[in-house]
Amino acid sequence: MKLTLFTLIPQALFAFSNAAAVELDNAAAEVTLEPRAPCTLYAWWKTNWNEAGLRRYRVQIGQDPGGSNEYSERFCDVLYHRCYSWSPIANPQCFWDTNDRTYYADLSFAEGPAGHSSYVDSFQHCLNNFRAETACDVNSNL
């Protein structure tokens, strides 16, 4: 049999794909799930309004267990430092309301269905980042 580039490439690809499949099977067998931390972050849509030609969404941030604001503050950190840089979020604000005694996140997006989709997708991405960093559950109604 004459070995040419056209006969060697398919053989090499076949050998590599079989080796990779065996390696993936071994890696999958070793994965164990870690239990979630005993905490839950709540993110509930409260209201929205027009501001400077954009749609401003307000989301209430809460946590369980209560008592401290550790997880709400941590979510604000995720919002500012891990989500704002890549998404279409404009003018993010995360603040403590002393009257309601709760955290709020205000975010601006384009008006209309595309802006609303961007709001939901971006906020969900931030919640997923928070979940990955803390192992807390997330309960959201955006």
From TrEMBL:
Protein name from the UniProt record: Uncharacterized protein
Keywords: Signal
Superkingdom, natural source: Eukaryota
Signal peptide positions (record): 1-19
